[in-house]
Every structure is written in C-alpha cells, then in structure tokens.
Amino acid sequence: MMPKSIRYTLRIVMLVAVVAMLTMILAPSVPTHSPYASALSNLVSSPVYAAGCPDKACDHGISCVSAAGFKCIRFNGKGCTATICG
Predict the structure, then answer these.
(1) Is pTM, for the whole model, over 0.70?
(2) Do the domain assignments include residue 57?
(3) Which residues does residue 82 pair with via DSSP β-bridges, in sequence order?
(4) Domain-embedded: residue 24
(5) What single string gives the DSSP state of each residue in 42-78?
(6) Domain carrying residue 62
(7) Dist CA 61 CA 58 (whole Å)
C-alpha cells in the first residue's frame, strides 16, 4: 500500500499531464483571421529573406522596387528606406 502523500502527488501529476494534453489537442492549429488578431502576427520572417538578400530597393522613399544587392524596409505605409546587403 502506498502512502497518502505519494498517491496525492501522482494524482496531481496526472491531472497536470491531462490538462497539458488537452490544451495541445484543443489549441487552434491555424491562425484565424479576425479583427482581434495581433498586429504583429504577420511579421514572421520568411525563409526567402533568411536565405540571402531580397534584392529590393526603395524608390524615392515611397515604395520598394526590384534592385539587386539591396534590402528595402517599409515604415507602416509612410515610406521606405534601403540598405545594402552585406
């Protein structure tokens, strides 16, 4: 026969494991598009940019255009700037 303290400890561990499994099973797998989503949720880095230079430059501080050797950075619709890839 097990002592009560070990039995209660095992019950708590099992309860925590069940709750953890339920949160993993019931969590949404795909982010939903809603007005309540985070404004930063679409800022995930792209594997294309991680591989090298995106080859985009800033056109007169207004928009990004294709140009070899540059990385264009946009500012919330208020223009852009370009840096040399290196």
Answers:
(1) no
(2) yes
(3) 72
(4) no
(5) T-PPPHHHHHS---EEEETTTEEEE-TTEEEEE-TTS
(6) 49-86
(7) 6
55 found inside a domain: yes
pLDDT digits (tens, 9 = 90+) for 22-47: 888 887 666 566 676 666 665 554 44
Number of other CB atoms surrounding residue 53 within 10 Å: 14
pLDDT in tens, 3-25: 889 999 999 999 999 988 888 88
Q: Answer for the pair 56, 64: CB distance below 8 angstroms, yes or no.
A: yes
CA atoms within 13 A on the CB side of 82: 22
- Looking at the structure of the chain, the number of domains it has is 1
- Are the beta carbons of 58 and 82 closer than 8 angstroms? yes
Say if 70 falls within a structural domain: yes
What's phi and psi for 63, nearest 5 deg?
Answer: -145, 160
